[in-house]
């Protein structure tokens, strides 16, 4: 197993080669998990997985989330989040199809499942069919952003906002990014949830901002003032360090740690190309607002 770090100054974005994740030993798995937790994003090429193999590998990291109803497809394993413009009949969906519109919300910076009471730990995305143009994914390191926050000309220092608790919502983010696409029943099933604005990573002990497009406002603050701060934090996250722009290859997987990394899709010509991506999502351990934050 060979390891390459793309942004060593940020301890960010690893490439692993010469490994078959369907045949790894416990020692090799532990090494892979340590790499993911250390560097935030890990690319592993040449992994032609089926759903059963992806699920088996993913469960080594812990309990898997159950995807939202809008993220699954009849006939697909219930642990799989399907991000695709291809339907049940293996035909490309129309660009006005509700699933295609819904998936466009992924083209805005976010952390997976921050709209759930217990936010996700790891996301494991497998490229099953990629378009000839576009369809990439960008990643940014929210730990580096927090560690350089003092360089941003902002009136709020980290001690001022250390204990801030925010409200996150998928309905809120999609309303802004894709419009009013959800019915009343879905909205009732997806209320705002509480998340810390700053989290301490349990493995690296580094702190990171936990914001992104699902983050609406800070509890107890004036809503406009809090949204202005969140806007500034999100802007700083994507400007403080280098953005990793990943161009996918078929049959590769990318694993990222949602506790410190934000990501977004870069879009593609949905009328011309097909794209099929299958994601398994490792559930978090506890509600983030119950975690302790340790600032040096």
Give a quick rundown of the structure:
The protein has 296 residues and is α+β, with helices and mostly antiparallel strands. Helices cover 24% and strands 24% of the residues.
Give an account of the 3D structure:
- The protein starts with a strand and ends in a 15-residue tail after the last strand.
- The model has no long low-confidence stretch (mean pLDDT 96).
- The protein is globular and about 50 Å long.
- The protein has one domain (2-290): Double-stranded beta-helix (4-Layer Sandwich), CATH 3.60.130.10.
- It contains eight helices and 15 strands.
- The strands form four sheets. Strands 1-2-3-13-5-15-4 form a seven-stranded mixed sheet. The protein has a three-stranded antiparallel sheet with strand order 12-6-14.
- 24% of the residues lie in helices and 24% in strands.
- β9 and β10 (207-209) form a beta hairpin.
- The protein has 296 residues and is α+β, with helices and mostly antiparallel strands.
- List unreliable stretches of 5+ residues: none
For the biggest sheet, the summary is: 7 strands, mixed
Fraction in beta strands? 15-25%
Tell me the quaternary state: single chain
Named at the architecture level, the CATH assignment is 4-Layer Sandwich
In the CATH hierarchy, what is the superfamily?
Clavaminate synthase-like
- Secondary-structure element order, N to C: EEHEHEHEEHHEHHEEEEHEEEE
CATH fold category name: Double-stranded beta-helix
Give the count of structural domains: 1
Quickly name the level 1 CATH class: Alpha Beta
Backbone CA Rg: 19 Å
Query: Looking at the structure, what is the overall shape?
Result: globular
């Amino acid at each position: 197993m060979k390891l390459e770090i793309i942004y060593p100054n940020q301890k960010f974005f690893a490439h692993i080669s010469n490994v078959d994740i369907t045949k790894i030993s416990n020692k090799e798995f532990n090494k892979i998990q340590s790499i993911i937790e250390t560097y935030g994003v890990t690319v592993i090429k040449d992994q032609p997985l089926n759903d059963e193999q992806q699920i088996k590998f993913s469960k080594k990291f812990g309990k898997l989330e159950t995807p939202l109803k809008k993220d699954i497809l009849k006939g697909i394993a219930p642990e799989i989040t399907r991000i695709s413009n291809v339907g049940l009949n293996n035909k490309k969906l129309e660009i006005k199809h509700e699933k295609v519109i819904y998936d466009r919300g992924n083209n805005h910076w976010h952390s997976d499942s921050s709209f759930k009471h217990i936010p996700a730990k790891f996301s494991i995305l497998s490229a099953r069919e990629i378009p000839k143009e576009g369809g990439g994914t960008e990643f940014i390191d929210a730990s580096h952003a927090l560690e350089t926050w003092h360089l941003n000309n902002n009136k709020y220092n980290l001690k001022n906002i250390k204990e801030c608790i925010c409200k996150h919502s998928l309905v809120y983010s999609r309303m802004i990014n894709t419009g009013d696409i959800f019915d009343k029943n879905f909205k009732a099933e997806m209320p705002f949830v509480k998340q810390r604005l700053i989290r301490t990573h349990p493995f690296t002990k580094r702190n990171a901002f936990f914001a992104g497009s699902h983050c609406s406002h800070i509890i107890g603050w004036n809503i406009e003032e809090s949204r202005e701060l969140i806007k500034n934090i999100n802007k700083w996250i994507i400007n403080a360090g280098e953005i990793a722009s990943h161009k996918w290859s078929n049959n590769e997987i990318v694993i990222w740690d949602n506790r410190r990394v934000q990501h977004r899709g870069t879009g593609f010509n949905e009328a011309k190309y097909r794209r099929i991506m299958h994601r398994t999502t490792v559930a978090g351990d506890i509600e983030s607002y119950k975690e302790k934050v340790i600032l040096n």
